[in-house]
Amino acid sequence: xxxxxxxxxxxxxxxxxxxxxxxxxxxxxxxxxxxxxxxxxxxxxxxxxxxxxxxxxxxxxxxxxxxxxxxxxxxxxxxxxxxxxxxxxxxxxxxxxxxxxxxxxxxxxxxxxxxxxxxxxxxxxxxxxxxxxxxxxxxxxxxxxxxxxxxxxxxxxxxxxxxxxxxxxxxxxxxxxxxxxxxxxxxxxxxxxxxxxxxxxxxxxxxxxxxxxxxxxxxxxxxxxxxxxxxxxxxxxxxxxxxxxxxxxxxxxxxxxxxxxxxxxxxxxxxxxxxxxxxxxxxxxxxxxxxxxxxxxxxxxxxxxxxxxxxxxxxxxxxxxxxxxxxxxxxxxxxxxxxxxxxxxxxxxxxxxxxxxxxxxxxxxxxxxxxxxxxxxxxxxxxxxxxxxxxxxxxxxxxxxxxxxxxxxxxxxxxxxxxxxxxxxxxxxxxxxxx
Amino acid sequence: xxxxxxxxxxxxxxxxxxxxxxxxxxxxxxxxxxxxxxxxxxxxxxxxxxxxxxxxxxxxxxxxxxxxxxxxxxxxxxxxxxxxxxxxxxxxxxxxxxxxxxxxxxxxxxxxxxxxxxxxxxxxxxxxxxxxxxxxxxxxxxxxxxxxxxxxxxxxxxxxxxxxxxxxxxxxxxxxxxxxxxxxxxxxxxxxxxxxxxxxxxxxxxxxxxxxxxxxxxxxxxxxxxxxxxxxxxxxxxxxxxxxxxxxxxxxxxxxxxxxxxxxxxxxxxxxxxxxxxxxxxxxxxxxxxxxxxxxxxxxxxxxxxxxxxxxxxxxxxxxxxxxxxxxxxxxxxxxxxxxxxxxxxxxxxxxxxxxxxxxxxxxxxxxxxxxxxxxxxxxxxxxxxxxxxxxxxxxxxxxxxxxxxxxxxxxxxxxxxxxxxxxxxxxxxxxxxxxxxxxxxxxxxxxxxxxxxxxxxxxxxxxxxxxxxxxxxxxx
Lengths: 435, 477
Ligand SMILES: [Zn+2]
Ligand SMILES: [Zn+2]
Ligand SMILES: [Zn+2]
Description:
- The complex is a heterodimer of chains A (435) and B (477).
- With 435 residues, chain A is an alpha/beta fold.
- Helices cover 60% and strands 12% of the residues of chain A.
- Chain A has a domain of 222 residues: Spore Coat Polysaccharide Biosynthesis Protein SpsA, Chain A.
- Chain A has an 8-stranded mixed β-sheet, sandwiched between helices.
- Chain B is α+β, with helices and mostly antiparallel strands.
- Chain B folds into 4 domains: 113 residues, Rossmann fold, CATH 3.40.50; 94 residues, Orthogonal Bundle (Arc Repressor Mutant, subunit A), CATH 1.10.10; 67 residues, 2-Layer Sandwich (Herpes Virus-1); 148 residues, Reverse transcriptase/Diguanylate cyclase domain (Alpha-Beta Plaits, 2-Layer Sandwich), CATH 3.30.70.270.
- In chain B, 33% of the residues lie in helices and 24% in strands.
- In chain B, the strands form 6 sheets. In chain B, strands 1-2-3-4-5-6 form a 6-stranded mixed β-sheet, sandwiched between helices. In chain B, strands 12, 13, 14, 15 and 16 form a 5-stranded antiparallel β-sheet that branches.
- Chain B is elongated.
- The two termini of chain B are 47 Å apart.
- Bound molecules: zinc ion (3 copies).
């Protein structure tokens, strides 16, 4: 109690300038970028959507009238157990003019048996299998090579899709012909399974749904999720498809943007995915994701920082934004930590709790303010409300440490080339070519 | 060397040779192909270089329903090597000159000796009669096994000469049914030899297996290697990597040349392109096209059959000589006919009745359709029943309602003719014979059945069994 009194006394004695000096990291990055910018964009987006309504309705009409063939490609390894469920759920889709192409990247389980059977029974249009594993990119490319549709929709076998998901992800192509790729809204299906899953549901909702509306609106939307993305086949053909991963989802997004297309996020095209339920598995997943940032943003796509033919200002901004708020932000946070450690050593006992208070208040505000913008809720607001105080630890500490570890491993040891994500043969080639 | 080297002591007159009390008949290409006149000869020598002719005669004799024919010793002279399994396996010896007559005479005697030991008791069904015939043949020839022989002329690809000789090559599957029956009866024991698959439409065994497109069933497709270029993850058929200028392979995505398999590229699988429906697939269907009926069948619907080598069991060996009682099916119940036990009971009552009324005359009759087996060979088990039903119908319509009919087996039936004297009965039977002949002729492409019958007046002081036996003996003697 005495500490609480002291804490309140100390905090009330601090003036605005000093408050900013002590919590500059929060105000600049968290509050400004992730709250003010997002909220203003979202309010603008919501306001703007009133005017887009007619255009979107027209786009939907022309989609349904022209009925273009859509190729759904589902690359995967040892995913056979999910395919039957996926096939069945696809029967429910409001948009039905699609062909389903499943690509098996050298599975060593029953996948081939299951899928061959479904192919024979006409439940899958085509099943292609590489007996020798080639990596996710080559599997997706094999699907692309034999796809006949005007649009390619990329699915993950273990995800499930809203009835109108395919229809909704296609509508933007008819709304704006410059749109070359559309990302779907990925939500967490198993959010009740564990605390770890609940926290990820909040994260997905916050950074992935709301964050992507913002980045899409600002034209800096970075990664079309591999779980649910739609592409103009023409765009993919021009690129020769995906390059080897990890991070191939982000990579293809950047490359399509480089071709001059607009990348769009569609919040109404909803896909449900299962996230890791233990922190251990979550760490593994995130290490892989975060390593790809270094590899693809910094090593492979260096050219976005260099003005040349393919240089576009929004690409540049997208990169700066991404690099700033992921890599640099991470470094800056440690910089802030050191700043506090050396310059405010005695006040540290107050600064740490105050940071937690600020972040938590911010998280509550964000959650409450953004909730009305969610079209599709997996649970009432109250379910998540009690978990909000944990977000500061999850976001501020847990994910930050994982991310730092990944960056260090990748920058200094190029660890992702050793990752068993890709077969050794591909990784060796990629390393030699500095991909 | 002349064709017929005839030793001094042997005299051939009108194609006949008498040798050591045996009467041989020589069939040569100038002979008639009618075999019925051969019944009086002890053995046959087929003298022909024409394998087809020799085969025709051999088939006719061995395929005959009458043991007088099918057990007859047959020898070949001037035989020209033939691959036909029946010609090879169903003769009793091949000689090169008439000097060897002594040898074949000994063989013929051996066969006679065994033949006399046989029991010709009739068995009930078509399968039983077929098996009995085969067992008799095996017994007289000292054969212990029935071996399948690969044969292009057989519809199922294999021939069991001893049984197949009874069937047209197109009806070879009936052979398997008969063997199955013998196996079930414990007369023969199977040793697995080979598995075959038959058309589910026509039972044909000549199938052409093809890889067909799973979408349209066309076999018109071409296959290509898929090539995966590691550096750029491009993957596509080999043709994507070819250019029009030279033989080098270049990646269409990154324009680099493919250098070394396993290092910068590999071929992870094969892809098929259907030239008919333009679709691509990796897993073709295997379908079997039946050469006989052209039906295209998915392999899982083919009928699998085991081709076995059959050995005679102990029961089979005894049955070959002594006949056997089938534990399996008797002639199925035919509407309008009664069973043999009931027939005998009714006959017993009738005997009791005429004992008291000596002026009353009743008769019993037996009808045997000698060659009806030939018909069953064509129609199979189902046909057997419907033929019998038709015959019963016909008989019923032409006798009195008090008369009764029973089948002894599928070629023999008994009639009890009540209040009917010998003359009347004989007239009735003659009429029935004509009617049955006509029925079969009209329904089976002018097939001529041979019907024998015998009528006897029912005796008041003899047992019914005894009187039936007497009647039967008189017919077959
Ligand atoms: Zn057939
Ligand atoms: Zn086809
Ligand atoms: Zn390449």
